[in-house]
Predict the 3D structure of the following.
Amino acid sequence: MKNQEECICALATPAGGAIGIIRLSGSDAITLTDKIFQSANGKSLEEAKPYTLHYGEIKDKDGNTIDDVLVSVFRAPHSYTGENSTEISCHGSRYILQQVLHRFTEVGCRQAEPGEYTRRAYLNGKMDLSQAEAVADLIASTNKATHKMALSQLKGHFSNELSLLREKLLKMTSLLELELDFSDHEELEFADRRELQALAEEINHKITTLAHSFETGNALKQGVAVAIVGKTNVGKSTLLNRLLHEEKAIVSDIHGTTRDVIEDTTLIDGITFRFIDTAGIRKTDDVVENIGIERTFQKMEEAKIVIWLLDKQPSVSEIEEMKLKNQGKKLLVVFNKMDKLEDEKLAFDKFTHSCGSDSSESESPLFISARTGENVSSLEQALVKAADIPEITENDVIITSARHYEALIRAHDSLSRVLESMEMGMSGDIIAEDLKMVLEELGEITGGQISSQETLNNIFKHFCIGK
């Protein structure tokens, strides 16, 4: 990472729009902007009050006008980064924006690195690390639920939860440490063991609840994985195209056309679904097709929901095999080509009875036509029901980061050792060490314990340049 004292500049909006915003941050941001900006009222930006807007022109080194602009002024520490900052609103021409950026580099700015603005905000105490990561999630949000989750984290709801947990743990750890200072008086116990156990169980329950929310958060962020499986030529690719509202997969009457996995996402009732069209399941001597079939079974394992697409009544052995391979998953049994399935509808009750199982959650079979779209809306509603995504509000704390999830799991493991040590009557120093580990793991999430530059670099390198 380069010197944080340097003034940085970057385009904060996509080029090509009506307006383009260039952002500067650093102790000299206002001074450097003043060097190339000529205010319409003739006043210097150095005299400007914070949170004010100024109209004027950006000049090149020969004094020629590059563009008419508006300059916003922010003074430390009351800015996004906590530093002096300016934002220059230019016309959106790529040429103009490049010229203005070039002009700033001429007077002493350097181009910002990915995520450097938010990194500076974190280092300057404007937000903790979990809030900083929420900025990237907010930018990347693709539906109402992911927007609410990111906004909740950005507002500090997750951080506040962790802060309360850490405060309680720190108090108890301090009392245990105090006991160690009086180790020559073994009868002294400053930390009530019953109170400590109750606290450890309470916090462990809270951490477990937060960790469990990761399944929901990850599904909303990455999309609920839905595998479309079935024999060759039952209409899997046609169904995928229908659900995506585009011709994503090749449709053919030839068996074995789909030989690899095809994935894409779409929104249904505000929930992102990640559909996976798989190779048709059949016995074949084709080596390539067999590889595709093997991947089909792998994707079935990864999916939360499996659509078993049929065009005729399956055998008992096929039903048993499908139930076995999808234990614990939502299994949607769907008959395609419904206009040709009149005889199959007569077997509806029999099929429902034979397909039901405690080990796999299956709904009553649906009858659709992927070709015409008939009844596909019913399938979409069945998918929303099967996803079982709770209503998300801005106050809900939902974990979406694998880094946060892993830290919570490690904290849970350390707390479990605390409870085991207490049951075994272990000394306070052993319990205190495990409590310290819990504090460190929770601190890793908000950044309170992070010192590794490699960790920070890995987090912020995925940000866009203007953030």
User: Anything to note?
Assistant: Confidence is low (pLDDT under 50) at residues 249-260, 284-290, 346-360. The longest helix spans residues 193-222.
